Amino acid sequence: MATTTLASSAAERHTRTGGIHIFGRPNRLRTDLLALLVLLGACLLSLAVGYMQPAPFEVGVAGRYATPYLQQFHEPEAPAGSQTPAYRWTRERSSVLAPGFGRGVWQTSLTLSSPQPTGQPKQVVVGTDSQRWALQLQPEPRVYQLLTPSAGDLTTTIEAPGATIGNDPRILGVVFGGIAFEPVVTVAFPPLLLLLYTSVALTLAFVTLRLIGLPAWLAVIGPLSGLLILASAVATNRGPMGLLMPRLAMLAIFGLVSVFALQWVWRWLVQLGRLAPEPWLLPALLVAFYVGFWLKSTGLLYPYSYTKDIPWHVRDIQLVLSGRWSEFYLPSAFSYGKMPVREWGNNPPLLPYSPFFHLVAASLAVFPWALDLSVNVFSVIFDANRVILIAALALALGLTSRGAFLAAALYAVTPFTFMLHSWGNVPTTFGIWVTLLATTILVLTFGRWHERRVFVLLTLGLLAAFLFYFVMAVFTGFFVLFLALGLLCVPQARARADQPGQIRPLLGSAALALLLSIVIYYGFFIPEMIERTLPYVTRTVAQGQTNTGQDQHISFAQYLANHYRHMGYTSYPVRHGVWLPVVLAVPGLWLLRKQRFGLLAIGAWLLVALVFFVVGLRVSMVDKYIFYAAPALAICTAALFERWWERSRLVPIAITAVYLLTFVSAMDIWIQRLQRVTG
Asked: Residue ranges of the alpha helices (H) in 127-215?
């Protein structure tokens, strides 16, 4: 088993960057094995206690509480004169899943009917893993009660002769009106497959935390906490648990691989920026990543969670997989389809909506599970690992390792980072990440932009920022211009006197990246943007459209009032939770003044956000400038927290309380958003 090897000297403590160390002492290996055995024993005991509780379960015909369990059914339908779905037609073979349901005997109440045009009865076969029944259905709905034994998973299949009815081209079986399971005899021992998935997830989580460097007793706490929540859910809400557990085992694998990858990324960033972090910083950042990864991924993969735009983007990814990728590459309905009428009107401008996320995400189809699960996990990994980039930025801008961790942790607990996932706008999330990566490369290589390798790396980073998301491309372009202007006006912020000037290579790299992005993608859109977009922008600015909709024209005071609510910690359904960083940004920025380049970089970053905040009054921006500026706000706030930390014993307690309250706000909006039905 793996442990963290402690540095043997002060010199080593200052030269190492921390992280994963594979081999440990034999006595520590025994401790790890003992802790793992305790964890697995607790797993068996906790699940057994959960399964002692009888759990009635119903599956309707529509909605998020029914759809995950229904396979090979037609879409739900409503009776004439009603808008509420009340039934589904089966196909020739349809199934109702109840995985991880538990051992024992259940009374299954199945509502079926066969409204054939002739009015004649129809025979169907209903089966489970161990039994089959032939039922003679009537035209009117009836409830059929069956005694169904279960070894853990209970799958009910309905086999019916298929036929077409009237002008309906579908092959129809019989009408399904819902199913209910009532426990008759229950057994406490958990289903073997669910026990296996749970054991795999707990074991990998423990191993991952040990590889990060946590002591064995501390590495057990996280998995045990998750186990207690799981056992409680098994006792009170068993339905979705059988669907969730295989996904949690999958997440544990992705989490372990991600931790290894991030360790390599961190060391690359440290080398690129010639940083000197303390050894404890990397393990702390990896823990922050890992906790955020589990909270966000589990929420998204929970079978009843609602993520608004994921089906939309998965549909586009499937079009790429079907070979229609060229349709994404040209001015077409793809870009127009991303412009909501409520925000842009019936005659929207053409904005080049980038297809590069969808092209990249098509590779996720290699995994043997539903594409929407892979897309959600992909999004969370690239969101949660921002703590690594923000910490590297903070170190490069003059903060200590403590300040770097405070900046990364503040971003990690900010409510909007959770809320974005509930929206399901994965291209936006990934585009913001690519922009942050390009900004990190730019800051870490300051003073060396003229070097060939650095110039190429910076150009590639800026090119990715330009290509992956159009709004972020505009933000990045303004950031480079503002930074170059600042370097021109503040000679003290430039590189050392013995190095070449940095303004020319910075602008040259950005110009080359822009030219390449035009050749690769944006050039196709230039004629239509001149024809449609420029007149729209001119007309919109003159008429005063706001980001609340084409038909509403609000004052600047109303615009500020909307932001006041959204940027707080208690609003619903939109909550950004950035008021504290916004308030502390200016004094925090002032603390960076000794590091002139840091002052200019963060200043340019915040200036971009301020400019587009004003633009947002006239042009729909959907608060993207807040998401863009959040890392800079976190760094400025952390600079203040770092300065205050040693002034009093009460200050660390107060700062910790701020983080805890922010985290509580984030979890509150996260749960509320995932429970939404629409919007």
From this structure: 192-212
Q: Collect all residues with Cβ–Cβ distance below 8 Å to 447 and sequence separation of at least 6.
A: 495, 496, 499, 502
Rounded Cα gap, residues 588 and 605, in angstroms: 14
Q: What digits encode the pLDDT tens for the residues 517-560?
A: 999 988 888 888 887 777 777 776 655 554 444 445 677 888 88
CA distances from 510 to 483, 544, 604 (A): 12, 32, 15
Summarised one tens digit per residue, pLDDT across range 599-655 is: 999 999 999 999 999 888 777 777 889 999 999 999 999 999 999 998 888 999 999
In whole angstroms, give the CA distance from residue 299 to residue 306: 9
- pLDDT digits 0-9 by tens, 9-64: 333 344 444 444 444 455 567 888 898 999 999 999 999 999 988 888 899 998 88
CA distance 265 to 389: 9
Structure tokens given for 395: 């170190």
Residue among 234, 198, 179 at smallest CA distance from 66: 179
End-to-end CA distance of the chain: 47
Pairing of strands 132-137, 175-187: unpaired
pLDDT of residue 540: 66
Per DSSP, 62 falls in state S
- Contacts of residues 522-525 at CB distance under 8 Å and 24 or more positions apart, as own/partner, are 522/352, 524/329, 524/330, 524/331, 524/352, 525/331, 525/335, 525/350, 525/352
pTM: 0.89
